[in-house]
Request: fold
Amino acid sequence: MKCIINGRVILADKTIDGFAVVFDEKIEKIVPASEINLNDYEVIDAAGNYVAPGLVDIHIHGYWGEDASDGNTEGLVKMSTGIAENGVTAWCPTTMTVSKEEIETAFNCAREVKNSDEYYGARILGVNSEGPFINPSKKGAQSADHILRPDADFILENADIVKVFTVAPEVEGGLECIKKVSEDGRVLVSMGHTNATYEEANAGIEAGVRHTTHLFNAMTALMHRNPGVVGAALSDERVSTELIADTFHVNKGLFKLVSKIKGNKLCLITDCMRAGGMPDGDYTLGGQPVHKEGIQCLMPDGTIAGSVLKLNEAVYNLYSNTDLPIEAAVAAASLNPAMAIGEDKEIGSLEVGKRADIIIADDKFNILKTIIGGYTRYEQ
Reply:
């Protein structure tokens, strides 16, 4: 049995001092440090830093030169290892609009790694299928050649591994697909890469959309006479929204507004591509060329293509550009996404009985230690 002491412990609704987090594979208790005998435990001294739940990235394409759409298990293991250094303890490898055969291969690789006991990075919860059921006019960095008509059966046939998928509600077959998948109940339906009007977006929500793929990006904007998908997503309490808080995809001036409106429905994501954790230079996303320079990843025509954001950086960006308490900023990258995909009974917050997915971070949320299932998997 282990315990963490001398930390500022971030719970779901408050941050507490002077408490010890006792854990094995699961969290056993969170009690005043004065109530335990340290000789009974393997002690981890947080040295005044934050002790927080492991982060959950439900939308990430790649890292360390690898991409989920490549369809190889070694790449997924490498990504899992890399993102653990950023405090991510659970994640959803995210596929692109590539060929259907490539998507199926990527699904199979995710199944293999998810069900394996042989890797020690962030745990795969399931796949995020971003495409191929999107609107060509809002494809962004996705390939128009592989866009397909929405197919609920394809998603449901893979519901053992797919946790969330993106669909444009206005395209032919979109509403029927949304309704069938949402009625099944196993897969979260997200609207994104969509040219829907406000009314069409609301029709999608009524059919079963409960999530929004990277809010503001690749969707109709919020205008005062045409509220668009952004307006529909912000105004409906049933819908959770992803936010790429890198200060490039979305201006940091909007962080405060979005967080106030969405509350615990705000989910920080990275949308990171294979250039994440790598030097500036030329890379690919979904088979298309992308140039990385600093925090910007652009296609040759200037189209924004994913990010190189780290989820711990997103937490700090949100925290430092809003008036949110630290526990709310952390929840946006842990409990909120876990709730969105139905994993919050096991992960997402420091609670007795939940998995011991724990991170220690400094005041700028740089990760000092990552513990997954009770075992230290990264230490600075």
Remarks:
- The mean pLDDT is 97.
- DSSP finds ten helices and 24 strands in the chain.
